[in-house]
Amino acid sequence: MTQTYRAVLVGTGSVADSHARAIEETRGRVQLVSAVDVERDRVNAFCARHKIAIARTDYEQALREDRPDIVLVAAPPSLHAAMSIAAMESGAWVLCEKPLCASLAELDRIAEAEVRTGRYTACVFQQRFASSTAHLRRLAAEGLLGRPLVAVCHTLWYRDSSYYAIPWRGKWTTELGGPTMGLGIHAMDHLLHILGDWAEVRAHAATLDRAIEVEDVSMALVRFANGALASVVNSALSPRQETSIRLDYQRATVELTHLYGYTRDNWKLTLAPTAAEEGNSLVQAWQHFPPDFGSTHAAQLAEFVADRDAGRRPSTSGDDARRTLELMTALYKSAFTGKPVLRGTILPGDPFYTALHGGMAAGHVGRPRPEPVAG
User: Fold this and answer.
1) Residues with Cβ within 8 Å of residue 344, at least 6 apart in sequence
2) Full DSSP string of 164-182
3) CA-to-CA distance for 244 and 226, rounded, in angstroms?
4) How far is CA 130 from CA 15, 204, 230, 274, in A?
5) How many helices (H) and strands (E) does the chain have?
6) Position 375 confidence tier, pLDDT thresholds 50, 70, 90
7) Fold exhibited by the domain 128-294
8) Average pLDDT, whole number, for the chain?
9) CA distance 373 to 60
């Protein structure tokens, strides 16, 4: 008999609607029994909109009385780790919005709670879960594209003062970072999912135009364990918005261009001039896409439910989640210290292990100094 899972959603801001739609697409496998938000009017409106029976303002009460099998965490970032741990301690598995937590130290506390409770916490990285990405990974694994050589990963978005007017945004203690952690983390995780382990990062970050504590732009050069090199830009300052990943393999360039989500139609393949003899077979393999589903919360939730059924660790948790968070941490460390950072070197005792800014953020990061006045 197929099991039905009881779910609680905590946080009913804009992303919560995506979670509600994802649950609807499970066709009864997951039932959203309650939603929680500190703002009573907002949670009431959300529950009315999605026909959810119970609206609460007390998270602990929801865990205690609604007995969830799954908790979906969509609250502000600084609450993610504590809420995830509390959910696991109540007996639930957790699917938590990005960023999963504030530091590698918090991630280790989540890992300790997983061992203690036998439950898991996974991060929402829906960009990984489109069928077209699985298709690309298969072609790469089969060697049809040749070795990956060069990559470009851009999250060029625009966030104005009204976006940062929400009290928890733009602050290290509550948003946990700027477009690196809050915006570009999706594309960077997607890049890692395709290219694998990273080895070294060199980065810059700056607060150029927004009145916020955190950066509003960051740039990084990433060296991967397989030798590939990637250029990464994360921006909240770009009026023409675009998310893109370009992958230059030995035999072809593969490009993905979109904004907040994609399907197979967002991809483009360009053969290398030297791949003429193999071109037809590669094009045929590329065009043989599986049934198309996009990079949605529903796609990730479907896999999460399958993992719950099997009792296995979900992807985007454990070491998989750590690879992404460690890259974010290393990017900030490199930006603040001006030095390259190797993977595996940010350990307990390093100030960046407990805080993404390493205690070096007195206010703004990298704000350009005024030009000297002549005379």
Assistant:
1) 326
2) HTSTTTT-TTTT-SSHHHH
3) 21
4) 18, 31, 22, 30
5) 13, 14
6) very low
7) Dihydrodipicolinate Reductase; domain 2 (3.30.360)
8) 95
9) 58
Element containing residue 117 per DSSP (H, E) = helix 104-117
317: closest CA among 25, 166, 135, 95? 95
Q: Which of 322, 276, 368, 280 is nearest to 125 (CA)?
A: 322
Burial class (CB in 10 A: 0-12, 13-18, 19+), 274: exposed
Paired residues of 217 in beta bridges: 206, 235
**What's the CA gap between 311 and 69, in Å, rounded?**
12
Euclidean distance between CA atoms 326 and 332, whole angstroms: 10
Strand partners, 158: 237
Q: What is the pLDDT of residues 332-358, one digit of tens each?
A: 999 999 999 999 999 999 999 999 999
- CA dihedral 93→95→100→101, nearest 10 degrees, is -40
pLDDT in tens, 317-333: 999 999 999 999 999 99
Q: Which fold has domain 5-126+298-314?
A: Rossmann fold (3.40.50)
Q: Where are the domains of the chain?
A: 5-126+298-314, 128-294
* Residue 128, pLDDT score: 98
Tokens of 330: 């290393």
